[in-house]
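TL;DR need structure tokens for one chain.
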Amino acid sequence: MSTTAKHGTRLPVKMTRFALFTGILAIILLVIAGPAYRLQVLPLLPAMLAAAISFLLFGVSFIVGAIGLLAGGRLAFERSRAAIPVIALSLVLSVVAGVWIARGIGTPPIHDVSTDLQDPPAFKNIVALRAAADAVNPVEYQRTQSIQGKQLDVSNAQRRAYPDIRPLALRQSPAQAFQMAHQVARDMGWDIVAALPSEGRIEATDATWYFGFKDDVVIRVEPGPNGSRVDVRSESRVGLGDAGTNARRISAYLSKLRQMAAG
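>> reply
TL;DR here they are.
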């Protein structure tokens, strides 16, 4: 290969090496941020900032690395083999971040979702756990929230964003429905705090996989017109909004319960 060609690949190779360094730094930040918050080594805001920076760096790593590989041709590929897996991983994680952000765009800034907006199921046994964990959000259902000095009607915001979050009617008796509701809650991997057939109430706690944010769930099973009725409420302990997490949790739970009842 001519000297001119070699000189022409210097910048692309430098770009791929920069992408390698940036990608490794992003991986380190991503690996540290969530667990550090879960272990209470980092406060929430620094941990979230570290995670946000990591995804930004993943984007930079992929863009710069891809340009370097394309511009440098075969020689750049040969000299940058160590960078290629990191650049590919940066693409994957950039897409994951994009999907997560897209899922949160347009969701209302609410953190408490219920199938029954007139009489939401009430937390009882979990109240002490939330108090011990210094949960920021109140355990009582808040019908309005102050957003930048304006009052948001939480119920109306939920109806507009999640019209499918409704009570589930089952043909089974309340006792049978309670057993199924309890089993599905365990199948979801939730930590069961209370299961009281006499009251038709199940309380549980779920945690997001990365930061480990604690969200609490209460399930109410009562007699219905043709069998039983199941209501579910899911509330985050911290955060003004939840990017749709509570609604997706309820939707997934009701879907599994509906399938079990149909089977």
